[in-house]
Amino acid sequence: MRQLLELGFGASTVRRRVSDGRLHRLFHHVYAVGRADVSPRGMRLAAVLTCGPGAALSHASAAAHHAIRPSAAAWFDVTVPHRRAIRRPGIRVHHRPSLADEDVTVVDGLPVTSVARTLLDLAAQFHPRALERAIEKAVILEIYDHRAVLALLRRSSGHRGVARLRAALATVRPGKTLTRSRLEELMLALCREWGLPEPDVNAYIRLGGTWEQVDFYWPQHRVVVETDGYRYHRSRGAFRRDRRRDRLLEVEGYGHARFADEEFDDDRPHIAAVLRNLLAR
Prior knowledge:
The chain is an alpha+beta fold.
């Protein structure tokens, strides 16, 4: 509504355009122009706008916007930096006067709580495994900032999610988990350091009758290396898939090895020796 008034529309003009179908009310004082079926991002933005200045998408809605956890909730979560009573149908308003500037960012033009703050808020609401998956997804997307999370925990005493988030971090160890791009850099650097040929990265090979993507592939040597880390091969289903892929590689005559991401920091000579042996075959 404020934006319409700034454009010179009076309240009566707004009412008339709503009645003739040129404006569609989404939330209190928030309208869509021309059509009511707006995108998910548009609805999230509308939810933030109706809550006033300083509001930010948060909790499960922020997790969905960051793409670290899907949400099928029928409402939107919005955090406001004050205690003034706000009630909006379809919106769950969280009052956080202590919300710091660094707790809010802008993603795709939409004010949203930072990844660190979103994880802390999720920790207060969701099962530990759901929280761990959200952390893992943030690492995979390379939007996880471990230092920002630790700084937030230090200044958030009293928040219900602090203990749960610390416990999840101890399990997942995201500060010690390498991102996909970082693993690629380390592998290529290792090959240069030890005089080994560089592999194709994220290559596709024919395996078990289908095309499968592998982490590193030396086509002239038919050697495949997989890394356990940024994809978090920790669940029972992932473990079975990994073992099945290893068997298929063996059956179809590929030389192959699997390394934990920590080995790229702790045992580079071992990786180089294994690779040299595989490539020599």
